[in-house]
Design goal:
The chain has two domains: 148 residues, 3-Layer(aba) Sandwich (Rossmann fold); 106 residues, Dihydrodipicolinate Reductase, domain 2 (2-Layer Sandwich), CATH 3.30.360. Helix content is 30%, strand content 24%. It has seven helices and twelve strands. The chain binds 1,4-dihydronicotinamide adenine dinucleotide and the ligand O=C(O)C1=N[C@H](C(=O)O)C[C@H](O)C1.
Length: 266
């Protein structure tokens, strides 16, 4: 069976790469896209894609669903709109595969409940790159032995959310195996606000934004006389595409929400 895919955010950095990936995949069909501009046109009219990219562009998901009936919605939009899109997709019986970051814990809980109640699969993956998933899992394992941890995430300067979804997911995985505790000197005082980064149960998260970067993270685990550094780099957005393809295929057989690619890769 061919999987009918729609992409939200198709004109963006990730969206464009995802459009090419789905177009090349013989088990999938790109039936429509959701974005802000060029509504009523097709992808080939945008001058961003080659002729023959005929998927129509919509701005409204209900309308998109009515006209093109996708099985899966891949969301690569913005922290501002992703919660609404995901909730709406579930209500329309479309399985969401979400790469967009910036969910609150409450939003994740609510979407998990909706997905379970409806029995409709959903994947929310803060990072689709297999190397990044391994970096997070290795950090989780190492945290049992070296529980004093700082996370440094580094991204391009157009990123809207901080800390990154990957850094939050990493902290979330580590927090499940590491008792919360204050790190550094108990009387430590910031003489300049923000110097020690964000505080996640005592772990510190630092966000770097610079032109030239794509997506990079290192997890520093310190112990007496030693430092373990676990680092992952995405040098281009091609690094995320195999994770998107795997998620689109997998979500078709899921009956509830899965948060993180670590639950679906072997
Ligand atoms: N999970 C993962 O592996 C990855 C996730 N991301 C995340 O994906 C998201 C997109 O990243 P980029 O492509 O760099 O952003 P971008 O800014 O280049 O692209 C976003 C696109 O979404 C569209 N858009 C925004 N709001 C919309 C709405 N309400 N309806 C329809 N279209 C809308 C914009 O017009 C634009 O075309 C970000 O949240 C980023 O953190 C990025 C890389 C990897
Ligand atoms: O905005 C990005 O670029 C990325 N966002 C995701 C995140 O917030 O972790 C994934 C990846 O790091 C790239």
């Amino acid at each position: 069976m061919t999987i009918r895919v729609a992409i939200a955010g198709a004109r963006g950095r990730m969206g464009q790469e995802a459009v090419h990936t789905i177009m090349k995949n013989t088990e999938m069909e790109l039936v429509a896209v959701l974005d802000y501009k060029d509504i009523g046109k097709t992808l080939e009219d945008t001058n961003l894609f080659p002729p023959s990219y005929g998927a129509p562009i919509f701005t409204d998901l209900t309308e998109l669903h009515k006209k093109t009936s996708p099985d899966v919605l891949v969301d690569l939009t913005s922290p501002e709109s992703v919660y609404k899109h995901t909730k709406e997709a579930l209500a329309l019986n479309i399985r969401p595969v979400v790469g967009t970051t910036g969910f609150t814990d409450e939003e994740l809980e609510e979407l998990t409940a909706i997905s379970k109640e409806s029995g409709l699969g959903c994947i929310i993956a803060p990072n689709f790159a297999v190397g990044a998933v391994l970096m997070m899992k290795f950090a989780e394992q190492a945290a049992k032995y070296l529980p004093d941890i700082e996370i440094i995430e580094m991204h391009h300067d157009q990123k809207l959310d901080a800390p990154s979804g990957t850094a939050l997911k990493t902290a979330n995985l580590i927090a499940a195996v590491r008792p919360a505790h204050v790190q550094g000197h108990p009387k430590e005082k910031e003489t300049f606000p923000g110097a020690r980064g964000a505080d996640y149960e005592g772990m510190r998260i630092h966000s770097v934004r610079l032109p030239g970067l794509v997506a990079h993270q290192q997890v520093l685990l310190g112990g007496e006389g030693q430092l373990l550094t676990i680092r992952h780099d995405s040098f281009n957005r091609g690094s995320f595409m195999s994770g998107i393809v795997l998620s689109v295929k997998t979500v078709m057989n899921l009956k509830e929400l899965v948060y993180g690619l670590e639950h679906i890769i072997d």
